[in-house]
Design brief:
277 residues, 13-stranded antiparallel sheet, disordered N terminus
Length: 277
Amino acid sequence: MRMFTLFALVLLAACGPRAAEEPSPSPSAKAAQPGPNLPRDQAGEAVRRAIAFHGGWDAWAGKRTVEFQKTTTRYRPDGTAEAPRTQYHRYVLRPELKARIEWDDAGRKVVLVNSGGEAWKTVDGKLAGAPEDRNQARNSTFGSHYVFNMPWKLADPGAHLAYAGRESLTDGTAVDKVRVTYARGTGDAGGLHAWTYLFDVKTGRLAANLLSYGPGKYDYTEYRDDHETGGLRFAARRLDFEAGEKGKRGPKASEIVYQHIRFDVPLPDGLFQRPRS
């Protein structure tokens, strides 16, 4: 999805990730809080309702690990689809984030790992040592974790929520809009981007989001096909579009499908250990 291409810019490493030689833990890697850290206003209430709709805080905070399959199809400017890419994601969610993403790339096995303190990439078992490889590992693991764990991540320390009014989507769904920015020093992208999340007024369901990731650059994502597993409700499909400032959709950029989501699976420490060479 374009948003994940973007996500090398967005909350992951957004617009200038920290050098991989000097990694620092993201706030998202900290242990879960005993309850959602949300303001007592319209924005906080909209996010509370969203968390409740998607399974509640306690159900999410009780999960220790998760694994899933993610298939991404990107679209060319003429609307034709590129070959889909299927990845296998595994995450230790708490007490600190650890992540592993792997896939086949034209016969080569690519693995991205984030140990919580450093990140790296291997290709066919060999360490890829270029700065862009280390940054890709950091950005992709943090970014995928952030997106998959919506809307609970909106209660992270450093997130600033502001109610932005109400509107109707093209299908007539009335939504509450919550603008989300991050304080400078929050993760890698604090102060660099702004998100607007759209929640169904009737249910609290996360319906869409608009991302501002640079001057005049916007990305719009729709959340489709809810799937329940482990007491939590996720969008099994996400459609990403180029967009304008007001969220007007442009050409479809990508589609992501999540499958085989499983929580609290055993994930041995060896999955997140740096190779010797």
